[in-house]
Design goal:
The N and C termini lie far apart (44 Å). The chain has four helices and twelve strands. With 249 residues, the chain is an alpha+beta fold. Strands 1, 2, 3, 4, 5, 6, 7, 8, 9, 10, 11 and 12 form a twelve-stranded mixed sheet that branches.
Length: 249
Amino acid sequence: MEPTVFSEKHRVTYYEADFTRRMTIAMMLDVIILASEDHSDELGVGAEFVRQFGVTWVVIQYDVHINRMPTVDEVITINTKSKSYNKYFAYREFTITDEKGNELMNMTGLWAAMNYKERKIASIPKETVEPFGAEKVNQVPKMPKPKKIDFDEADKQTFTVRYTDIDSNQHVNNAHYMDWMVNVLPAEFLTNHTPTGFLLRYENEVKYGSNVDSYYNMDKLEDGTIMTRHEIMSGDSHSAIANITWREN
């Protein structure tokens, strides 16, 4: 059985973009997750079905390559398929294309099933993945690890986890981590640079009402591009780590 491919169109709205009129990374992640949820719903294995098994899906890591960020009023197509899975992890692929079929972005994501009450990783119920036609494997492909922060050289900003940061799965919406990471960067840098890709790995949940510290380093690479290394800390807990690469506009 071949993996089912799901596609849906989306018009980029002004509130999904910054003042450069480019879609933000966080909003891009939101529409990608929406497509994966709509795919699950179409196959009859949406969030409510999954909860019958006492689990919910959580993202472990993203590996994203960006050719161009979508812009305001552009109609894009999000394509996704569930590629493979094993006992504990599921591997999903995404692309975003423009109206001419040009690939704007491709992404691979690693998911796990989390016990809804215990908040711990659980084995994946086969009923929740078989309809996707994904291949069952002994080991899903390994993803590259983001480079860590040099805390001694890092700049940081503190954010408070708000009520509206928490989603229906009772944890911080995945895209908000990226917002915390991007918002520590200087506005002049963000205006004059566009992302070309990122690695983002989630480590530990952040709780409502807690404070998080968003750290970053900035490195100039040999090819002239910039890499920003990011880490979200909640107290002594490592919550998320990311590397974002940027090119000058």
